[in-house]
From TrEMBL:
Protein name: Probable glycine dehydrogenase (decarboxylating) subunit 2
Record-linked SUPFAM superfamilies: PLP-dependent transferases
Key words of the record: Oxidoreductase, Pyridoxal phosphate
Cofactor: pyridoxal 5'-phosphate
Length: 489
C-alpha cells in the first residue's frame, strides 16, 4: 500500500481547513456550554475530506484478518464462524432498540428468549440453573468462585479459602481465584498431560473451597479421571468447578453436570459462535447444580405462569446492573436454535474429527509431544527437525504469507515451542487439506531455504516487528511517534 496516499494515521492526512462534514443551517440559535464543561484548548482533530476518511478506514479494514477472510486455527480461543443469521437476529429492532429499564410487560419476547437460553444451557450442560449476566469467560470464573464462596460461608465453613488449579489450566483460572481473594494451589500434571490424581490427594483437606478443571484441558485432552477426582473433592467437602470456555468438543459427547461438576461457566463467544477478539464483546454464563441456585447473582429472568419477569431480589452477588451482553446471548441462542437438537450433538464429533485429521496429517513434519486421539485441538512442539533453527514463531509468521491466521503459539507453557491448533467443526476438508499442504511446504522451506521462514512475513503490510523493542519502548501516541521520528533524525 502506498503510505503517502493512504497514510498510517488519519492525522498524517490532515490539512488545515479541510472538512468532511456539512451541517444544515442552524435554526436553533447559539447556546453557550457552561464554562466548567468547556475545553481549555481546542481538541486536536484531523482535518480531512470525507472521501479521504472513507478510503483511510476502508484500506485499514482490508488489512484486518477474521474468520470471514480465511482459516483461523487459533487453539484455546475457538475462532468459530458466526453465521449471518445470528447477526440478523441480534439486529432485529425489537431486540436492538430495547432500553434496559423498559418495563417487563413491554419486552416479553426479549425476556422469553433470555429465559429460553437459560434453560437451553441447563439442557446442554446438565446443570440446574444458569445466569447469563457475566461479560466474559474470566468474569464467569469470578462469578462462579463467588458463588462457591457464598455457599461455604452459608454453611459457616470459613476455613475453605484455597482453590486447586491444575498446572495446565488457562491463565485466567488462577487469576480469577486470586481476584476472588482465594489462595491458589497448583496441582501437577502426569507426563501424559492429565491431572495427577496422586498429587491432588496430597492437597485435599478442609481448607479447600473448590477444584477448577478444564475439560478438555489446554492440551486438548479429555480428563478421563474426572469421576474419581469429583469423588475425592466432594469427599473433602469442596466443590467442583468446570471451565467450559471451550465446550465445543463436549457437545453431543457428555455433560459437565453428569460428570460431577457443581459450578461452571461457558464462553458463548467461543462455543456458540458470536464474533469476539480484541477484548470483546463476550458472554460467560455460569451454571450451578442442585442446591446452589439461591446463590446465583441477580437479576435473573423467571417465568411466572405465562409471564416473564426480572427477579431482582438481592442474593448477595451481583456482577452487572442488567442482563449481561444481550446481543451476544441472542447470537448464541440463534446458533443453538438453528442447529437444533438433532445437529448440536454433531458439533463435538466434527470438531474432534477435524482436529485429529490435521494432527495425523502433519505429525510427520511437526513434533507431536502427546500422541493419541485429541479432542477439538492439539499441540505441536515446533518442527520435528530441530536442526534447521526455525522456531514456532517463524512458522507462525510464514503462515501469514500464505494467507492464514497463525495458531496459538507458546501456549500452553508445558512445551518450549508450543503451537496450538484448533480448526473447529465448520471447516471443509478442502480448507483443511490446503492448510496441511501449506504447513508441509513451510516445513520443506525450513529444511531447504530456512532464511525465507526466519525473516517472514514478506507479503504483509508490516514485516516482522521487533517484539523486544516494542515491549521495552512502546510508542502509544501519535505525538510520541512524531517526537520519536524527530529524535531519530
Ligand atoms: C478463553 C478462555 C478463558 C477466558 O475467557 P475470556 O472470555 O477470554 O475471559 C478461560 N478458560 C479457557 C480454557 C479459555 O479458553
Amino acid at each position: 500500500m502506498n503510505n503517502k496516499l493512504y497514510g498510517n494515521l488519519i492525522f498524517e492526512l490532515s490539512h488545515e481547513g479541510r472538512k468532511g462534514y456539512s451541517l444544515p443551517e442552524n435554526t436553533f440559535g447559539n447556546y453557550e456550554l457552561p464554562l466548567c464543561a468547556r475545553r481549555k484548548t481546542d481538541a486536536e482533530l484531523p482535518q480531512c475530506d470525507e472521501l479521504t476518511v472513507v478510503r483511510h478506514y476502508t484500506n485499514h479494514s482490508e488489512n484486518n484478518f477474521g474468520v470471514n477472510n480465511g482459516f483461523y486455527p487459533l487453539g484455546s480461543c475457538t475462532m468459530k464462524y458466526n453465521p449471518i443469521v445470528n447477526e440478523e437476529t441480534a439486529a432485529m429492532p425489537g431486540f436492538a432498540a430495547l432500553h434496559p429499564l423498559q418495563p417487563a410487560e413491554t419486552c416479553q419476547g426479549a425476556l422469553e428468549a433470555y429465559y429460553n437460553m437459560q434453560k437451553a444451557l441447563s439442557d446442554i450442560t446438565g446443570l440446574s440453573e444458569f445466569t447469563l449476566n457475566p461479560f466474559a469467560g474470566a468474569h464467569g470464573e469470578l462469578t462462579g468462585l463467588m458463588i462457591i464462596r457464598a455457599y461455604h460461608q452459608h454453611n459457616e465453613d470459613h476455613k475453605r479459602t484455597k482453590v486447586l488449579v491444575p498446572d495446565s489450566a488457562h491463565g485466567t483460572n488462577p487469576a480469577s481465584a486470586a481476584v476472588c481473594g482465594l489462595e491458589v494451589v497448583e496441582v501437577k500434571s502426569t507426563p501424559d498431560g492429565l491431572v495427577d490424581v496422586d498429587d491432588l490427594k496430597t492437597h485435599l483437606d478442609d481448607t479447600i473451597a473448590a477444584m477448577m478443571m478444564t475439560n478438555p484441558n489446554t492440551l486438548g485432552l479429555f480428563e478421563s479421571d474426572i469421576p474419581e477426582i469429583a469423588r475425592l473433592v466432594h469427599e473433602c467437602g469442596a466443590l467442583m468447578y468446570y471451565d467450559g470456555a471451550n465446550l465445543n468438543p463436549m457437545l453431543g459427547a457428555c455433560r459437565p453436570g453428569d460428570m460431577g461438576f457443581d459450578v461452571m461457566h461457558i464462553n458463548l463467544h467461543k462455543t456458540f459462535s458470536t464474533p469476539h477478539g480484541g477484548g470483546g464483546p463476550g458472554s460467560g454464563p455460569v451454571g450451578v447444580g442442585k442446591g446452589l441456585e439461591q446463590f446465583l447473582p441477580r437479576p435473573r429472568v423467571v417465568k411466572d405462569g405465562s409471564e416473564y419477569k426480572m427477579d431482582t431480589e438481592y442474593a448477595g452477588i451481583s456482577v452487572g446492573e442488567f442482563l449481561g451482553n444481550f446481543a451476544t446471548m441472542l447470537r448464541a441462542y440463534t446458533y443453538i436454535l438453528s442447529l437444533g437438537k438433532e445437529n448440536l450433538p454433531m458439533v463435538g464429533p466434527l470438531a474432534t474429527l477435524n482436529a485429529n485429521y490435521i494432527k495425523e496429517s502433519l505429525k510427520d513434519a511437526y513434533e507431536l509431544p502427546i500422541t493419541g486421539v485429541c479432542k477439538h485441538e492439539f499441540v505441536f512442539n515446533g518442527l520435528k527437525d530441530k536442526s534447521t533453527g526455525v522456531t514456532t514463531m517463524d512458522v507462525a509468521k510464514r503462515l501469514l504469507d500464505y494467507g492464514y491466521h497463525a495458531p496459538t503459539i507458546y501456549f500452553p507453557l508445558l512445551f518450549h515451542e508450543a503451537m496450538m491448533i484448533e480448526p473447529t467443526e465448520n471447516e471443509s476438508i478442502d480448507t483443511l487439506d490446503c492448510f496441511i499442504d501449506v504447513m508441509h511446504r513451510i516445513a520443506r522451506e525450513a529444511a531447504e531455504t530456512p532464511d525465507i521462514v526466519k525473516t517472514a512475513p514478506h507479503n504483509t503490510p508490516i514485516g516482522r516487528v521487533d517484539d523486544v523493542l516494542a515491549a521495552k519502548h512502546p510508542i502509544l501516541t501519535y505525538k510520541q511517534m512524531i517526537s520519536d521520528t524527530q529524535d531519530n533524525g
